Amino acid sequence: MPRSVAFPTSPVSPDAVLLMTVKILDDFAGQGLGRILVQAIAKDVFRRGFRAIEAFGDLKGEGARCVVPADYLLAVGFKTVRPHHRWPRLRLEVKNTVSWREDVEVALERLLGSMAPEGMLRQVGSAAGTVHAP
C-alpha cells in the first residue's frame, strides 16, 4: 500500500501482509466475531505463503478512522513489534494462529464426539464385561 510508508513505524516486514482495516459492527461486537475474522484471514494468508499479518494500530482512537484500534489487535493476538505513542506496528504470526485454531477444533470435535448420545447411552454389561445373575 503506497501510503503505508507515511506511518512512522513503517515499513511492513517483507514476510508479512498488511491488514489495512477491519470492523465489526457495534450490534455484533463482543461475540467473538473479530477473533474468528482474524483467524480466517490468518488461514488464508498462511495458504498464500506469508508468515505474518502486520497492521498499524491506533492508540488514541479519535473519530471514525480507517486504522484499526490497537487494543482490538492486541485482543485478537497481535503483538507490538514497533512501539509508537500513536501508531504502533503490530504483528500476528499466522502459523501459530492457524495451528492453534486447528488444535482447538480437533479437541472440541473429540470432546463433543465423546458426549454424543450413542456414546452416553451404551448398554450396561457389554460383551467383554457381562455380568450374569446367579
Number of domains: 1
- Could you give the count of β-strands? 4
Strand content: 5-15%
What is CATH's topology name? Aminopeptidase
Strand arrangement within the widest β-sheet reads 1-2-4-3
**Helix/strand structural class:** alpha+beta
Helical proportion, percent range: 25-40%
In the CATH hierarchy, what is the architecture at level 2?
3-Layer(aba) Sandwich
The CATH homologous superfamily is named Gcn5-related N-acetyltransferase (GNAT)
Which outline best applies?
A: globular
CATH class: Alpha Beta
Distance between the termini: 82 Å
Largest sheet: 4 strands, mixed
Radius of gyration: 23 Å
Determine the number of helices (DSSP H or I, runs of at least 4 residues): 4
